[in-house]
């Protein structure tokens, strides 16, 4: 009898453990972060359009260098399509204006174009001056000069200069902040212009 009473006293605790819990929703079910996921997808799509818009403009106008405020207006038509801010973002920003949205979109766009090597900054300073890799004649000349001069050395005479050697030399001569991605864009441009040729994987020499 005492055992039965003890077991009955434990029933409320067992009930709370087993049944008084929120029903778990697995990832992907309706109602789980739909707004956040949708917002991220919308911004990713918008960022892709902004990147292509700026890339096309730089190519068509043959822009050599620019500052962010020179191209900010190109993204203004896209800004109304930005997803609405979350409650916490609205509270912290107190309803950001359209220009702030534009600056954020432009900042992310420039970051992507730098990552792919389309743009680079010769000097990292408060003056945000961006160089367009394929249009920077000084950079292209520096790359070609390094390959032309060093290919004559016995060490590189057979296979040509390795890309890491070229990168190191161009950084010393032209820009310490030059990325490998930007160098690769410059090398492809010079190769398409028949100024240099790739002798093997990651090795280059002059024609």
TrEMBL record:
GO molecular function, one term: DNA binding
Highest taxon of source: Eukaryota
Keyword DNA-binding belongs to the record: yes
InterPro entries cross-referenced by the UniProt entry: CST_STN1_C
Keywords recorded for this protein, A-Z: Chromosome, DNA-binding, Nucleus, Telomere
Boundaries of every Stn1 C-terminal domain copy: 46-206
Cellular component GO terms held in the UniProt record: chromosome, telomeric region; nucleus
Pfam families: STN1_2
Localization per record: Chromosome, Telomere; Nucleus
Protein name: CST complex subunit STN1
Organism of provenance: Clupea harengus
Origin organism lineage: Eukaryota, Metazoa, Chordata, Craniata, Vertebrata
